Amino acid sequence: MDENGRSIPAESDEEHGATTLTRRGLLTGAALAAGAAISARAAKAVGAQAAPDPTKVPGARPQVVGSRSPHETPEKLISGSIGGVTRTPHHELHGILTPADLHFERHHHGIPQIDPASYRLLIHGMVDRPMLFTLDELKRFPQVSRLHFLECSGNGGAAYRVDPPTDISPQAMDGLLSTSEWSGVSLATLFEEVGAHPDATWFLAEGSDAAVMSRSIPMEKAWDDAMIAYGQNGEAIRPEQGYPARLLLPGWEGNASVKWVRRLELSDRPFMFRDETSRYTDPLPDGRARIFSFVMDAKSIITHPTYPTRLEDPGFVEISGYAWTGRGVIERVDVSIDGGATWEAAELQEPVLPKCTTRFRHAWEWDGEPAHLMSRAVDETGYVQPTAAQVRDVRGPGTRYHYNSIRGWRIAADGTIGFAAS
User: What separation, in Å, do the N-terminal and C-terminal C-alpha atoms of the chain show?
Assistant: First the structure.
Protein backbone atom coordinates (compact mmCIF):
# COMPACT_ATOMS: atom_id res chain seq x y z
CA MET A 1 0.00 0.00 0.00
CA ASP A 2 1.20 3.54 -0.65
CA GLU A 3 0.83 6.49 1.76
CA ASN A 4 -2.65 7.18 0.38
CA GLY A 5 -3.88 3.60 0.89
CA ARG A 6 -3.65 2.52 -2.75
CA SER A 7 -2.23 -0.87 -3.76
CA ILE A 8 1.19 -0.88 -5.40
CA PRO A 9 1.29 -3.16 -8.48
CA ALA A 10 3.06 -6.48 -7.83
CA GLU A 11 4.48 -9.24 -10.00
CA SER A 12 4.44 -13.03 -9.27
CA ASP A 13 7.68 -14.85 -8.43
CA GLU A 14 6.73 -18.42 -9.34
CA GLU A 15 10.11 -19.84 -8.28
CA HIS A 16 9.57 -18.88 -4.65
CA GLY A 17 5.81 -19.26 -4.71
CA ALA A 18 5.31 -15.70 -3.35
CA THR A 19 4.21 -12.27 -4.49
CA THR A 20 7.30 -10.01 -4.77
CA LEU A 21 7.54 -6.22 -5.30
CA THR A 22 9.58 -5.26 -8.32
CA ARG A 23 11.42 -2.01 -9.16
CA ARG A 24 8.93 -1.34 -11.98
CA GLY A 25 6.04 -1.75 -9.58
CA LEU A 26 7.59 0.60 -7.03
CA LEU A 27 8.24 3.29 -9.66
CA THR A 28 4.71 2.98 -11.04
CA GLY A 29 3.21 3.28 -7.59
CA ALA A 30 5.37 6.27 -6.71
CA ALA A 31 4.34 8.00 -9.92
CA LEU A 32 0.68 7.41 -9.17
CA ALA A 33 1.07 8.75 -5.65
CA ALA A 34 2.97 11.86 -6.80
CA GLY A 35 0.43 12.55 -9.53
CA ALA A 36 -2.44 12.24 -7.09
CA ALA A 37 -0.74 14.58 -4.64
CA ILE A 38 -0.10 17.21 -7.33
CA SER A 39 -3.68 16.91 -8.57
CA ALA A 40 -4.99 17.34 -5.04
CA ARG A 41 -2.91 20.47 -4.47
CA ALA A 42 -3.97 21.91 -7.82
CA ALA A 43 -7.63 21.21 -7.08
CA LYS A 44 -7.29 22.81 -3.67
CA ALA A 45 -5.68 25.91 -5.18
CA VAL A 46 -8.33 26.21 -7.86
CA GLY A 47 -11.06 25.79 -5.29
CA ALA A 48 -9.55 28.43 -3.01
CA GLN A 49 -9.23 30.97 -5.81
CA ALA A 50 -12.42 29.99 -7.60
CA ALA A 51 -10.75 31.17 -10.81
CA PRO A 52 -11.27 29.74 -14.30
CA ASP A 53 -8.44 27.96 -16.08
CA PRO A 54 -6.67 30.81 -17.96
CA THR A 55 -5.93 28.44 -20.84
CA LYS A 56 -9.65 27.86 -21.38
CA VAL A 57 -11.00 31.44 -21.49
CA PRO A 58 -10.02 34.58 -23.42
CA GLY A 59 -7.88 37.07 -21.51
CA ALA A 60 -8.73 40.69 -20.76
CA ARG A 61 -8.49 43.38 -23.41
CA PRO A 62 -5.49 45.75 -23.29
CA GLN A 63 -6.11 49.14 -21.66
CA VAL A 64 -4.78 52.61 -22.44
CA VAL A 65 -3.25 52.68 -18.93
CA GLY A 66 -2.05 49.47 -17.36
CA SER A 67 -2.74 48.42 -13.78
CA ARG A 68 -1.35 46.10 -11.14
CA SER A 69 -2.64 42.59 -10.68
CA PRO A 70 -5.56 42.59 -8.22
CA HIS A 71 -3.42 40.19 -6.15
CA GLU A 72 -0.76 42.88 -5.67
CA THR A 73 -1.93 45.60 -3.29
CA PRO A 74 1.05 47.61 -1.94
CA GLU A 75 0.03 50.81 -0.18
CA LYS A 76 1.68 53.81 1.40
CA LEU A 77 1.25 54.34 5.13
CA ILE A 78 -0.44 57.70 5.77
CA SER A 79 -0.21 59.91 8.84
CA GLY A 80 -1.18 63.54 9.41
CA SER A 81 -3.41 65.63 7.17
CA ILE A 82 -2.48 68.68 5.07
CA GLY A 83 0.97 68.73 6.60
CA GLY A 84 1.22 64.96 6.66
CA VAL A 85 3.40 62.18 5.34
CA THR A 86 3.10 58.90 3.49
CA ARG A 87 5.63 56.08 3.76
CA THR A 88 6.90 53.69 1.09
CA PRO A 89 6.26 49.92 1.64
CA HIS A 90 9.89 48.78 1.22
CA HIS A 91 9.12 45.24 2.38
CA GLU A 92 6.84 44.75 -0.65
CA LEU A 93 9.16 46.10 -3.35
CA HIS A 94 11.81 44.52 -5.57
CA GLY A 95 15.04 46.03 -6.83
CA ILE A 96 15.87 49.66 -6.05
CA LEU A 97 13.33 51.68 -8.07
CA THR A 98 10.22 52.89 -6.22
CA PRO A 99 7.00 52.98 -8.29
CA ALA A 100 6.02 56.64 -8.59
CA ASP A 101 2.65 56.08 -6.93
CA LEU A 102 4.39 54.54 -3.90
CA HIS A 103 7.03 57.26 -3.50
CA PHE A 104 6.96 58.72 0.02
CA GLU A 105 5.47 62.18 0.58
CA ARG A 106 6.10 65.00 3.04
CA HIS A 107 3.97 68.12 2.73
CA HIS A 108 3.97 71.32 4.76
CA HIS A 109 0.61 72.63 3.54
CA GLY A 110 -0.94 70.21 1.08
CA ILE A 111 -0.40 69.42 -2.61
CA PRO A 112 -0.91 72.40 -4.95
CA GLN A 113 -2.57 71.85 -8.32
CA ILE A 114 -0.55 73.73 -10.95
CA ASP A 115 -1.41 74.13 -14.63
CA PRO A 116 1.79 73.41 -16.55
CA ALA A 117 0.83 76.03 -19.13
CA SER A 118 0.97 78.73 -16.47
CA TYR A 119 4.10 77.44 -14.70
CA ARG A 120 7.08 79.80 -14.50
CA LEU A 121 10.54 79.54 -12.92
CA LEU A 122 12.22 82.85 -12.09
CA ILE A 123 16.01 82.98 -11.70
CA HIS A 124 17.30 86.35 -10.48
CA GLY A 125 19.52 88.04 -7.90
CA MET A 126 23.27 88.00 -8.51
CA VAL A 127 22.97 87.16 -12.22
CA ASP A 128 23.70 89.07 -15.43
CA ARG A 129 20.38 88.24 -17.07
CA PRO A 130 17.37 87.60 -14.80
CA MET A 131 15.11 85.20 -16.68
CA LEU A 132 11.64 83.67 -16.42
CA PHE A 133 11.37 80.15 -17.84
CA THR A 134 8.25 78.31 -18.93
CA LEU A 135 8.09 74.53 -18.63
CA ASP A 136 8.49 74.15 -22.39
CA GLU A 137 11.58 76.37 -22.30
CA LEU A 138 13.11 74.23 -19.57
CA LYS A 139 12.51 71.14 -21.69
CA ARG A 140 14.46 72.67 -24.61
CA PHE A 141 17.71 72.42 -22.66
CA PRO A 142 19.74 69.17 -22.84
CA GLN A 143 18.05 66.61 -20.62
CA VAL A 144 19.81 64.62 -17.92
CA SER A 145 18.42 61.46 -16.28
CA ARG A 146 19.83 59.77 -13.18
CA LEU A 147 18.69 57.37 -10.46
CA HIS A 148 18.88 58.90 -6.98
CA PHE A 149 17.31 58.28 -3.60
CA LEU A 150 15.33 60.96 -1.81
CA GLU A 151 15.01 60.80 1.97
CA CYS A 152 13.25 62.97 4.52
CA SER A 153 15.72 64.20 7.13
CA GLY A 154 13.33 62.99 9.86
CA ASN A 155 13.25 59.43 8.50
CA GLY A 156 13.74 56.75 11.14
CA GLY A 157 13.10 58.85 14.22
CA ALA A 158 11.69 55.91 16.18
CA ALA A 159 15.05 54.12 15.93
CA TYR A 160 16.69 56.88 17.97
CA ARG A 161 14.51 56.39 21.01
CA VAL A 162 16.12 54.73 24.03
CA ASP A 163 13.23 52.27 24.19
CA PRO A 164 11.80 52.04 20.66
CA PRO A 165 8.63 50.05 19.90
CA THR A 166 9.16 46.46 18.79
CA ASP A 167 6.00 46.20 16.69
CA ILE A 168 7.18 48.49 13.90
CA SER A 169 7.77 47.55 10.26
CA PRO A 170 10.48 48.78 7.86
CA GLN A 171 7.78 50.89 6.23
CA ALA A 172 6.78 52.57 9.48
CA MET A 173 10.42 52.96 10.54
CA ASP A 174 12.17 54.10 7.35
CA GLY A 175 9.40 54.58 4.80
CA LEU A 176 10.36 58.23 4.19
CA LEU A 177 12.86 57.01 1.60
CA SER A 178 12.31 56.34 -2.09
CA THR A 179 14.34 56.01 -5.27
CA SER A 180 13.37 57.24 -8.71
CA GLU A 181 14.89 57.95 -12.08
CA TRP A 182 14.75 61.74 -12.23
CA SER A 183 14.85 63.60 -15.55
CA GLY A 184 15.28 67.31 -16.12
CA VAL A 185 17.78 70.06 -16.80
CA SER A 186 21.05 70.53 -14.96
CA LEU A 187 20.93 73.55 -12.66
CA ALA A 188 24.46 74.44 -13.75
CA THR A 189 23.15 74.80 -17.32
CA LEU A 190 20.46 77.25 -16.19
CA PHE A 191 22.88 79.26 -14.04
CA GLU A 192 25.24 79.53 -16.99
CA GLU A 193 22.31 80.71 -19.13
CA VAL A 194 21.47 83.56 -16.74
CA GLY A 195 25.11 84.46 -16.08
CA ALA A 196 25.53 83.63 -12.39
CA HIS A 197 27.99 85.99 -10.70
CA PRO A 198 31.19 84.36 -9.43
CA ASP A 199 30.62 86.06 -6.05
CA ALA A 200 27.28 84.29 -5.58
CA THR A 201 27.77 81.61 -2.91
CA TRP A 202 24.15 80.74 -2.03
CA PHE A 203 20.78 80.61 -3.73
CA LEU A 204 17.25 80.54 -2.35
CA ALA A 205 14.86 77.89 -3.67
CA GLU A 206 11.20 78.84 -3.17
CA GLY A 207 8.18 76.59 -3.68
CA SER A 208 4.67 77.29 -4.97
CA ASP A 209 2.81 75.49 -2.19
CA ALA A 210 0.68 77.29 0.40
CA ALA A 211 3.57 77.04 2.89
CA VAL A 212 5.94 78.69 0.36
CA MET A 213 8.58 76.17 1.46
CA SER A 214 12.03 77.74 0.96
CA ARG A 215 15.64 76.76 1.60
CA SER A 216 19.09 78.34 1.23
CA ILE A 217 21.43 76.16 -0.85
CA PRO A 218 25.20 76.54 -1.38
CA MET A 219 26.15 77.28 -4.98
CA GLU A 220 28.65 74.40 -4.97
CA LYS A 221 25.72 71.98 -5.14
CA ALA A 222 24.30 73.77 -8.19
CA TRP A 223 27.60 73.44 -10.03
CA ASP A 224 27.85 69.78 -9.00
CA ASP A 225 24.77 67.60 -9.65
CA ALA A 226 21.61 69.61 -8.83
CA MET A 227 18.81 69.66 -11.39
CA ILE A 228 15.35 71.02 -12.03
CA ALA A 229 13.44 67.76 -12.45
CA TYR A 230 10.25 67.50 -14.49
CA GLY A 231 10.32 63.74 -15.12
CA GLN A 232 10.08 60.77 -12.77
CA ASN A 233 10.44 57.11 -13.78
CA GLY A 234 9.81 57.87 -17.43
CA GLU A 235 6.73 60.07 -17.03
CA ALA A 236 5.91 63.57 -15.89
CA ILE A 237 6.74 64.07 -12.25
CA ARG A 238 3.78 63.30 -9.98
CA PRO A 239 1.90 66.20 -8.29
CA GLU A 240 2.86 64.79 -4.88
CA GLN A 241 6.50 65.02 -5.95
CA GLY A 242 6.41 68.58 -7.26
CA TYR A 243 4.62 68.68 -10.62
CA PRO A 244 5.35 70.31 -12.94
CA ALA A 245 8.95 70.83 -11.72
CA ARG A 246 11.02 70.55 -8.56
CA LEU A 247 14.55 71.14 -7.39
CA LEU A 248 16.52 67.91 -6.91
CA LEU A 249 19.68 67.85 -4.77
CA PRO A 250 20.99 64.26 -4.94
CA GLY A 251 22.16 62.85 -1.61
CA TRP A 252 20.89 65.79 0.44
CA GLU A 253 18.00 65.92 2.89
CA GLY A 254 14.67 65.80 1.11
CA ASN A 255 13.23 69.12 2.29
CA ALA A 256 16.03 71.01 0.53
CA SER A 257 14.87 69.56 -2.81
CA VAL A 258 12.06 72.10 -2.91
CA LYS A 259 8.94 70.89 -4.73
CA TRP A 260 6.84 73.00 -7.12
CA VAL A 261 9.87 75.31 -7.34
CA ARG A 262 9.02 78.75 -8.70
CA ARG A 263 11.96 81.01 -7.79
CA LEU A 264 15.74 80.78 -7.46
CA GLU A 265 17.50 83.87 -6.11
CA LEU A 266 21.30 84.01 -6.07
CA SER A 267 23.10 85.78 -3.22
CA ASP A 268 26.42 85.96 -1.35
CA ARG A 269 24.92 84.69 1.93
CA PRO A 270 22.24 82.29 3.19
CA PHE A 271 18.73 83.70 3.54
CA MET A 272 17.96 82.21 6.99
CA PHE A 273 14.38 81.47 5.99
CA ARG A 274 11.97 80.18 8.64
CA ASP A 275 12.22 76.62 7.29
CA GLU A 276 15.93 76.52 8.15
CA THR A 277 15.70 78.13 11.61
CA SER A 278 12.46 76.86 13.18
CA ARG A 279 13.00 73.49 11.46
CA TYR A 280 15.87 71.39 10.13
CA THR A 281 18.28 72.62 12.81
CA ASP A 282 19.62 70.30 15.51
CA PRO A 283 20.28 71.40 19.11
CA LEU A 284 23.59 70.03 20.41
CA PRO A 285 24.51 69.07 24.00
CA ASP A 286 26.79 72.10 24.46
CA GLY A 287 24.01 74.60 23.73
CA ARG A 288 24.95 75.24 20.11
CA ALA A 289 22.85 74.17 17.10
CA ARG A 290 23.78 72.29 13.97
CA ILE A 291 22.47 74.07 10.86
CA PHE A 292 22.66 73.34 7.13
CA SER A 293 23.34 69.65 7.75
CA PHE A 294 22.39 68.80 4.19
CA VAL A 295 24.16 65.50 3.43
CA MET A 296 22.45 62.23 4.30
CA ASP A 297 25.07 59.95 5.88
CA ALA A 298 25.50 56.25 5.12
CA LYS A 299 22.59 54.15 6.30
CA SER A 300 21.03 50.72 5.83
CA ILE A 301 17.99 48.76 6.89
CA ILE A 302 17.06 45.10 6.62
CA THR A 303 13.65 44.70 4.97
CA HIS A 304 13.46 40.89 5.25
CA PRO A 305 13.02 39.14 7.59
CA THR A 306 11.41 41.82 9.75
CA TYR A 307 8.26 42.59 11.68
CA PRO A 308 5.48 41.56 11.06
CA THR A 309 6.94 38.50 9.25
CA ARG A 310 7.27 35.27 11.22
CA LEU A 311 9.77 32.53 10.40
CA GLU A 312 7.84 29.28 10.33
CA ASP A 313 10.64 26.73 10.55
CA PRO A 314 14.44 26.63 10.88
CA GLY A 315 16.26 26.63 7.56
CA PHE A 316 17.58 28.89 4.83
CA VAL A 317 16.70 32.59 5.06
CA GLU A 318 17.88 35.33 2.71
CA ILE A 319 18.53 38.50 4.69
CA SER A 320 17.97 41.46 2.36
CA GLY A 321 17.56 45.20 2.50
CA TYR A 322 18.71 48.63 1.32
CA ALA A 323 21.83 50.71 1.89
CA TRP A 324 22.44 54.29 0.75
CA THR A 325 24.66 57.31 1.27
CA GLY A 326 24.58 60.94 0.21
CA ARG A 327 28.37 60.98 -0.12
CA GLY A 328 28.67 58.73 -3.15
CA VAL A 329 28.70 54.94 -3.53
CA ILE A 330 28.05 52.21 -0.98
CA GLU A 331 31.31 50.30 -0.64
CA ARG A 332 30.18 47.49 1.67
CA VAL A 333 27.32 46.28 3.84
CA ASP A 334 28.01 44.07 6.85
CA VAL A 335 25.38 41.82 8.40
CA SER A 336 25.35 40.46 11.95
CA ILE A 337 23.11 37.73 13.37
CA ASP A 338 24.35 38.09 16.96
CA GLY A 339 23.63 41.72 17.75
CA GLY A 340 26.90 43.11 16.44
CA ALA A 341 29.31 40.70 18.15
CA THR A 342 30.45 39.44 14.74
CA TRP A 343 29.92 40.73 11.19
CA GLU A 344 29.98 39.22 7.70
CA ALA A 345 30.04 41.08 4.39
CA ALA A 346 26.78 40.89 2.43
CA GLU A 347 26.52 40.67 -1.34
CA LEU A 348 25.75 43.95 -3.10
CA GLN A 349 23.24 43.59 -5.93
CA GLU A 350 23.95 45.48 -9.13
CA PRO A 351 23.59 48.26 -10.03
CA VAL A 352 25.61 50.09 -7.36
CA LEU A 353 25.18 53.78 -8.18
CA PRO A 354 26.22 57.03 -6.48
CA LYS A 355 23.65 58.65 -4.17
CA CYS A 356 21.24 55.83 -4.90
CA THR A 357 19.85 52.95 -2.87
CA THR A 358 21.75 49.67 -3.18
CA ARG A 359 20.26 46.24 -2.54
CA PHE A 360 22.21 43.86 -0.31
CA ARG A 361 21.67 40.15 0.31
CA HIS A 362 23.09 37.62 2.76
CA ALA A 363 22.42 33.87 2.96
CA TRP A 364 21.71 32.63 6.48
CA GLU A 365 20.81 29.25 7.93
CA TRP A 366 18.50 29.85 10.89
CA ASP A 367 18.90 27.12 13.53
CA GLY A 368 15.71 27.94 15.42
CA GLU A 369 17.54 29.74 18.21
CA PRO A 370 16.99 33.45 19.10
CA ALA A 371 18.94 35.83 16.85
CA HIS A 372 19.56 39.57 16.60
CA LEU A 373 19.94 40.76 12.99
CA MET A 374 21.73 44.01 12.14
CA SER A 375 23.08 45.71 9.02
CA ARG A 376 25.91 48.25 8.81
CA ALA A 377 26.69 50.33 5.72
CA VAL A 378 30.13 51.61 4.74
CA ASP A 379 30.48 54.17 1.93
CA GLU A 380 33.36 55.04 -0.38
CA THR A 381 34.62 57.78 1.95
CA GLY A 382 35.21 55.19 4.68
CA TYR A 383 32.26 56.40 6.78
CA VAL A 384 30.80 53.55 8.85
CA GLN A 385 27.14 53.58 9.90
CA PRO A 386 27.18 54.21 13.69
CA THR A 387 25.20 52.72 16.55
CA ALA A 388 22.48 54.81 18.20
CA ALA A 389 24.70 55.22 21.27
CA GLN A 390 27.52 56.63 19.14
CA VAL A 391 25.17 59.19 17.57
CA ARG A 392 23.83 60.24 20.99
CA ASP A 393 27.36 60.71 22.31
CA VAL A 394 28.02 63.31 19.60
CA ARG A 395 24.64 64.96 19.12
CA GLY A 396 22.81 64.35 22.38
CA PRO A 397 19.25 63.13 22.94
CA GLY A 398 17.54 66.22 21.48
CA THR A 399 18.44 65.76 17.83
CA ARG A 400 15.48 65.67 15.45
CA TYR A 401 16.99 64.81 12.09
CA HIS A 402 19.44 62.51 10.29
CA TYR A 403 18.72 59.33 12.23
CA ASN A 404 21.18 57.01 10.50
CA SER A 405 22.06 54.67 13.36
CA ILE A 406 22.22 50.89 12.90
CA ARG A 407 18.84 49.14 12.93
CA GLY A 408 18.23 45.69 14.39
CA TRP A 409 15.61 42.95 14.44
CA ARG A 410 15.28 40.30 17.16
CA ILE A 411 14.06 36.85 16.14
CA ALA A 412 12.58 34.74 18.93
CA ALA A 413 12.76 30.95 19.08
CA ASP A 414 9.15 30.75 17.87
CA GLY A 415 10.05 32.78 14.77
CA THR A 416 8.35 36.04 15.77
CA ILE A 417 10.29 39.21 14.89
CA GLY A 418 10.43 42.62 16.55
CA PHE A 419 12.42 45.81 16.00
CA ALA A 420 15.47 46.31 18.19
CA ALA A 421 17.74 49.36 18.37
CA SER A 422 21.49 49.03 17.98
Answer: 56
**210 and 322 both lie in a single domain:** no
Do 281 and 339 sit in the same domain of this protein?
no
Q: Could you give the C-alpha distances from 147 to 187, 223, 314, 367, 377, in angstroms and in order?
A: 16, 18, 38, 39, 19
CA angle (240 as vertex; 291, 182 as ends), nearest 5: 75
How confident is the model over 380-389, as pLDDT tens digits?
A: 999 999 999 9
Q: What proportion of the chain, given as a percentage, has pLDDT over 70?
A: 88
What CATH number should be reported for the domain holding residue 311? 2.60.40.650
CB-CB contact of 265 with 283 (8 Å): no
CA-CA distance, 248 to 186, in Å (whole number)? 10
Q: Is residue 31 part of a domain?
A: no
What's the mean pLDDT when you consider all of the chain? 89
Alpha carbon distance 161, 401 (integer Å): 13
Q: Are residues 344 and 410 in the same domain?
A: yes
Whichever domain contains 85, its CATH number is: 3.90.420.10
- Among 263, 290, 317, the domain-final residue is 290
Predicted local distance difference test score (pLDDT) of residue 80: 79
CA distance linking residue 352 with residue 331, whole number of Å: 9
Q: State the average pLDDT over residues 102-107.
A: 95
The whole-angstrom separation of Cα 101 and Cα 95 is 16
Q: Same structural domain for residues 149 and 246?
A: yes
Name 83's Cβ contacts closer than 8 Å, sequence gap at least 6. Answer: 107, 108, 109, 110, 211
pLDDT digits (tens, 9 = 90+) for 166-189: 999 999 999 999 999 999 999 999
pTM: 0.86
